[in-house]
Amino acid sequence: GLLTRFQPSAPTLRTLSSSNTFSQNIPSSLWKLGRLNHVAIAVPDLEKAQSLYKDVLGARVSESVALPEHGVYTVFVELGNTKLELLHPLGEKSPIASFLQKNKTGGMHHICIEVDDIKAAMTELKEKKIRILSEEPKIGAHGKPVIFLHPKDCHGVLVELEQA
């Protein structure tokens, strides 16, 4: 009767199930990409940037934290589904200082994606000829091991991987 017209037909179900072949062609890895942890933005004036996100946009904004090993001050802006990391140079040799020399008003610096096994990721990425910017992971702003992938191997984007 009338109800059978609204039930999905068998060919539609077969079509949907055949779309699973995409995932079957991906080789299995010993590690997995997780969620986007944050997008990092280099800023020439950290106080003004904090004020924009906190006072103008109404976001929760952390205090500034110095990370001498990375040559940066960091501030995290909490969003519903991820964070923004505001980066400001700490010292003359800061990678953010050189970034800001080229980009005077600041801009997107990197994206950070979580991984479930950073050592396995490093091994496999090296095998796939993706350059890693350090020999060993460093402890990042969240107190977890991080590595950075060369932007020339990642379509122009500096990618940070963080142990979840």
UniProtKB/TrEMBL annotation:
It catalyses: (R)-methylmalonyl-CoA = (S)-methylmalonyl-CoA. The keyword Isomerase applies. GO terms for molecular function: metal ion binding; methylmalonyl-CoA epimerase activity. CDD domains: MMCE. The keyword Membrane does not apply. GO terms for cellular component: mitochondrion. Residues 35-164 form the VOC domain. Methylmalonyl-CoA epimerase involved in propionyl-CoA metabolism. Belongs to the methylmalonyl-CoA epimerase family. This is Methylmalonyl-CoA epimerase, mitochondrial. It comes from Turnix velox.
